[in-house]
Structures are given as structure tokens and as C-alpha cells.
Specification:
This protein is mostly helical and about 325 residues long. It has one domain (about 1-315). Helix content is about 70%, strand content about 0%. Helix 1 packs across helix 7 (about 160-175) and helix 4 (about 85-105) crosses helix 5 (about 110-130). It comes from Flavobacterium segetis. It is a multi-pass membrane protein.
Length: about 325
Amino acid sequence: MLYLGLLILFIALELVYFKIADKYNIIDKPNARSSHTAITIRGGGILFPFAISIAYLLGYISWQITIAVALVAVISFIDDVKPLSQLPRFASHAIAVGLVFFDLHLFSEAIWILVILFVLIIGWINAFNFMDGINGITVLYSLISIVTFAFLPVNQTSLPVLITMGISCLVFGLFNVRKKAKTFAGDVGSISMALFLGYFMIKSIVESGQFGFVLFFAVYGIDAVITIVSRLVKKENIFQPHRSHLYQYLANEKGFSHVVVASLYASAQLMINIVVVYMDGKGYLSLNGVGLFLLLLTFIYLMIRVNILSQLSSKYQK
């Protein structure tokens, strides 16, 4: 009954936000780099930090993570309404990561470990945000990640907060996983969700001692890294909006439905997660095993990307 109540509450909160966003013109207008063509309400992902706040009130999650998510959510929402400079955004991310470290008692670790973790989480937050470009991709990928974390034995005590966030994803998905989305997550949604997932990734690795769980983010990670390298080779500004991710080529140039492409990404990550959990259960998920699996996934991704770009090149030459 509690979770049913949360479902109804989240639907009500989202509908109230739509009224507010409509009144104050918080919308996303398509431009030359957009993957959508219609004006859409921006910031519907504000439901995610709301869900975290409610989870805190119910005693499901710590104050450190609640404040961390709330901080990045507030700054990101302001940025959604009126673009901010890099400094306040980076500062909020840095403070939030510090709170994650505090929650997980990581400040006793060697400084070089903290630096590596800091870079990885900041990189993950930005990669997750950059990947938020078509209907359904953020919420479906998030839902797969949440379900996977909930499956791990080390996270059994965290099931209530994971279920709460899963419900918020389902509600947001009602308005986003459509041919014509009612709302987009916005930075407030994608960045707060990225921090939440990043926290659970680090938590799962620390408490299990299994570094291989990093493969739960393999699809986004490989696409983001290869795209950045490709843009650097072309001497493009990697901080500027673009349409160079594989999913963007599939949705924009190839003309596949946004929901189909988003489902493909989520399904690919789900299959990888199943393999990772199986390998861990059989004792095959050593560092060498993780490295080989990652190389295989990268090779498959590159083959698909090269094939798609080759098809597009041939099309444009005709």
C-alpha cells in the first residue's frame, strides 16, 4: 500500500510540475542539434530528487545523499531555467561527490584513490547528462540500473530506496517514453539520477569488493568515451552540444524511433548486467575477466558505429 501511495503521489507531483512549468514557460525548444522537433516541457526529471527527499523522510536513505542530490538538483534546475557558468555547476558536483565519500566512509582511503574516484564520478555524471538526448533513453537506462542494483545481495537493505526510485522512473516514463514526449528530464533529472546511480555503483563495489560491477554502466560509458575521442580527433569542442553519439545517429540520421533506440540501449545494458552477475556468481569476474569483457564490448560497439557511419557516408555521397 505504501508503494501504491508513492505511485499516486509521484503522478500528482509530476502533474503539478507540468502546470508550474507551463505557467513559467519552462520548455525545451528544438534547435539544429536537437533530436526532437516539438516544444516540450523541460525538467520533468525533478521527480527524481523529490523521490529521494521522500525516501529520506521515510528513513530509506542518509541525509548526506539526500543533500547531495538536492544540491545538484537545485543548481541543475536553475541551469535548466537560465543557463549558468561552469563554476557553480562543477562546485555543486564536487560538494555532492564529497558527501558521497562521507556517506561511504571513504575519506580514510589513500588520497590517490579518492582522486581517481572523484574523476570517475564527475566523468560519469557528465557522461550520463550528455546521453540524455532522446525520448526514453535516460529513464529506461536508469530503471535497468536500479533493478540490477536491487538484485545484488549487498544492496538488500537498500531495497526501499531503490524501489522508491524505481517507482519515480515508472511515473516519469509514463510522460517521457512516447513517440511525442510530454516532458524531458532536463539537467535536474539527468544529473540527480546520475549522482544517485553513481553512489550505488561505488557503494556496491566497496561493500562487495567486486570492481567488475562497473560494467553495469558499460553501454553509456563506452558510447560516451568513444564519442569524446572521436570529437577530439575532429578537433571539436567536446563541451558543446552535438549529435555524434551512436544513439543520435540511429535516431536522427537512420530515422529509428526514439523509443526503439532507447529500448535497444537499455536491453543491451540489461544483457550485459545479466552476464556480469552470472560471471560474478561463477567466480569468473576477475580483473582480467573484466578487462577482456570490456574490450569485447568496445570492439562490438566500434563495429556497429563504423558500420552505421559507413552507411550514412554512402547515403550522403549518392
